[in-house]
Design brief:
single chain; alpha+beta; Beta-lactamase Inhibitory Protein, Chain:B, domain 1; two-stranded antiparallel sheet; 3 helices; binds zinc ion
Protein backbone atom coordinates (compact mmCIF):
# COMPACT_ATOMS: atom_id res chain seq x y z
CA UNK A 1 0.00 0.00 0.00
CA UNK A 2 1.26 3.41 -0.84
CA UNK A 3 1.50 5.91 1.88
CA UNK A 4 -0.70 8.81 0.96
CA UNK A 5 0.57 12.09 2.21
CA UNK A 6 -2.93 13.45 2.82
CA UNK A 7 -3.63 10.62 5.20
CA UNK A 8 -1.17 12.16 7.56
CA UNK A 9 -2.91 13.88 10.47
CA UNK A 10 -3.46 17.57 10.37
CA UNK A 11 -1.38 19.17 13.03
CA UNK A 12 -1.64 22.74 14.12
CA UNK A 13 1.61 24.17 15.36
CA UNK A 14 1.06 25.94 18.63
CA UNK A 15 4.13 28.06 18.03
CA UNK A 16 3.46 29.47 14.58
CA UNK A 17 -0.21 28.37 14.20
CA UNK A 18 0.51 26.78 10.84
CA UNK A 19 -1.51 23.69 10.02
CA UNK A 20 0.39 20.91 8.29
CA UNK A 21 -0.50 17.38 7.27
CA UNK A 22 2.59 15.64 8.46
CA UNK A 23 3.77 12.61 10.39
CA UNK A 24 6.74 14.54 11.60
CA UNK A 25 7.08 15.27 15.30
CA UNK A 26 8.19 18.78 14.53
CA UNK A 27 6.57 21.65 12.69
CA UNK A 28 8.05 21.89 9.20
CA UNK A 29 7.65 25.66 9.34
CA UNK A 30 9.30 26.66 12.58
CA UNK A 31 10.91 23.36 13.61
CA UNK A 32 9.40 23.31 17.08
CA UNK A 33 7.91 20.05 18.37
CA UNK A 34 4.14 19.59 18.11
CA UNK A 35 3.82 17.48 21.15
CA UNK A 36 3.80 19.18 24.45
CA UNK A 37 5.99 17.36 26.92
CA UNK A 38 3.23 16.59 29.37
CA UNK A 39 5.24 14.62 31.86
CA UNK A 40 7.64 16.35 34.14
CA UNK A 41 9.60 14.49 36.77
CA UNK A 42 8.35 16.73 39.54
CA UNK A 43 4.77 15.70 38.80
CA UNK A 44 5.70 12.58 40.73
CA UNK A 45 6.30 14.50 43.97
CA UNK A 46 2.65 15.16 44.96
CA UNK A 47 1.74 11.62 43.92
CA UNK A 48 4.46 10.17 46.15
CA UNK A 49 3.53 12.51 49.01
CA UNK A 50 -0.12 11.56 48.63
CA UNK A 51 0.73 7.87 48.60
CA UNK A 52 2.73 8.26 51.80
CA UNK A 53 -0.04 10.29 53.42
CA UNK A 54 -2.63 7.65 52.54
CA UNK A 55 -0.35 4.93 53.87
CA UNK A 56 0.30 6.87 57.05
CA UNK A 57 -3.34 7.59 57.79
CA UNK A 58 -4.41 4.08 56.83
CA UNK A 59 -1.92 2.63 59.30
CA UNK A 60 -3.01 5.10 61.96
CA UNK A 61 -6.60 4.05 61.37
CA UNK A 62 -5.72 0.38 61.85
CA UNK A 63 -3.69 1.15 64.97
CA UNK A 64 -6.56 3.23 66.33
CA UNK A 65 -8.96 0.33 65.99
CA UNK A 66 -6.80 -2.02 67.98
CA UNK A 67 -6.20 -1.51 71.63
CA UNK A 68 -2.92 0.27 72.02
CA UNK A 69 -0.16 -1.84 73.47
CA UNK A 70 0.60 -0.31 76.88
CA UNK A 71 4.06 1.01 77.59
CA UNK A 72 6.10 -1.17 79.88
CA UNK A 73 6.14 -4.89 80.39
CA UNK A 74 2.86 -6.66 79.66
CA UNK A 75 2.05 -10.14 80.87
CA UNK A 76 2.00 -11.41 77.28
CA UNK A 77 5.44 -9.97 76.64
CA UNK A 78 6.78 -11.47 79.86
CA UNK A 79 5.33 -14.93 79.15
CA UNK A 80 6.48 -14.87 75.55
CA UNK A 81 10.10 -14.20 76.36
CA UNK A 82 12.13 -17.35 75.69
CA UNK A 83 15.05 -18.37 77.85
CA UNK A 84 18.32 -17.39 76.21
CA UNK A 85 16.95 -14.13 74.78
CA UNK A 86 19.58 -11.41 74.67
CA UNK A 87 19.21 -8.77 77.35
CA UNK A 88 18.95 -6.06 74.69
CA UNK A 89 15.91 -7.81 73.17
CA UNK A 90 14.27 -8.07 76.59
CA UNK A 91 14.96 -4.37 77.16
CA UNK A 92 13.16 -3.73 73.87
CA UNK A 93 9.76 -4.81 75.21
CA UNK A 94 10.20 -2.92 78.46
CA UNK A 95 9.68 0.43 76.71
CA UNK A 96 12.14 2.07 79.08
CA UNK A 97 10.51 0.70 82.23
CA UNK A 98 12.90 0.59 85.16
CA UNK A 99 13.15 -2.51 87.31
CA UNK A 100 11.57 -2.32 90.77
CA UNK A 101 14.41 -4.35 92.18
CA UNK A 102 17.76 -5.58 90.96
CA UNK A 103 19.46 -8.48 92.64
CA UNK A 104 22.93 -9.67 91.79
CA UNK A 105 24.31 -13.00 92.81
CA UNK A 106 27.67 -14.37 91.82
CA UNK A 107 28.53 -18.01 91.58
CA UNK A 108 31.20 -19.86 89.71
CA UNK A 109 32.63 -16.68 88.24
CA UNK A 110 29.34 -15.74 86.56
CA UNK A 111 27.09 -13.04 87.82
CA UNK A 112 23.36 -13.65 87.73
CA UNK A 113 21.47 -10.39 87.58
CA UNK A 114 17.82 -10.60 88.48
CA UNK A 115 15.50 -7.72 87.71
CA UNK A 116 11.98 -7.46 88.96
CA UNK A 117 9.53 -5.56 86.79
CA UNK A 118 5.96 -4.66 87.58
CA UNK A 119 3.60 -6.07 84.96
CA UNK A 120 1.65 -3.12 83.65
CA UNK A 121 -1.53 -4.89 82.55
CA UNK A 122 -2.00 -7.32 85.41
CA UNK A 123 -2.53 -6.17 88.95
CA UNK A 124 -0.29 -7.24 91.78
CA UNK A 125 2.00 -9.07 89.42
CA UNK A 126 5.66 -8.61 88.77
CA UNK A 127 7.98 -10.54 86.54
CA UNK A 128 11.47 -11.59 87.33
CA UNK A 129 14.02 -11.70 84.55
CA UNK A 130 17.44 -13.04 85.46
CA UNK A 131 20.33 -12.63 83.08
CA UNK A 132 23.50 -14.62 82.96
CA UNK A 133 26.19 -13.26 80.67
CA UNK A 134 23.68 -10.98 78.95
CA UNK A 135 21.20 -13.74 78.13
CA UNK A 136 17.91 -14.53 79.80
CA UNK A 137 18.42 -17.36 82.27
CA UNK A 138 15.33 -17.17 84.46
CA UNK A 139 11.89 -15.79 83.50
CA UNK A 140 9.13 -16.21 86.02
CA UNK A 141 6.15 -14.44 87.52
CA UNK A 142 6.46 -12.93 90.94
CA UNK A 143 3.25 -12.42 92.84
CA UNK A 144 3.02 -10.08 95.74
ZN1 LIG B 1 5.47 25.94 13.76
Amino acid sequence: MNAEPDRAPLKICRHCSLGSRTDAERCPSCGKPYRRRVWRWWFAIPIVVLAFAIGYFARKEIAGDEEAEPAGLTIAEARGMPIGTAQAAVDGVLDGQRPDRVKRSSGGGNELVCRLYAVVDEERTAWEFCFLDGALEVSRPHRF
